[in-house]
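== Folding the chain ==

***
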Amino acid sequence: RLAVYEQYKHLKQEELIAELYKKFQSDFIQYIKGIFTIIIFNNHTFQIFSDRHSIKKYFMYQTEKDFFISNSLELIAENYTLKIDNENAALFSLTSHFFNGNTLFKNVQSCLPAQHLTFTENSLHILNYWNPREILHLYPAKKNREYYASNWSKFIASYVDYISPENIS
């Protein structure tokens, strides 16, 4: 992704996404890094991509009759009567975490890391576009410490360069 960064670093975030989407369609997400929720609308369909760590959350309220997506639980609560999910509340009290997209409320799920949601013609598909296990197969040969230190420095420098004040939108 560093090579892609070098090629497109002159673009603003929205322009970068649009350019990569034109070139790679849904695979554009393989070239994006950062904290985001990206929504792409095409005619009567839409796609939502969460970042690889699911830091920027969106929520889905779903029953047999209703389906609602928002990045705000408050907005969902304004439109639907939410009820506490006692099982998820108990799990959270024991572990201080929600698992598998569960939330404190019945019928409300949060996105998972690296999630790709596609809605087409009344059909909903949710997949993951990346799995952390892939990292294990990327570099099977062990490298020396300098190799990793050099690459890590390049990654950090690219982040600092991109988020410099003049590039923030």
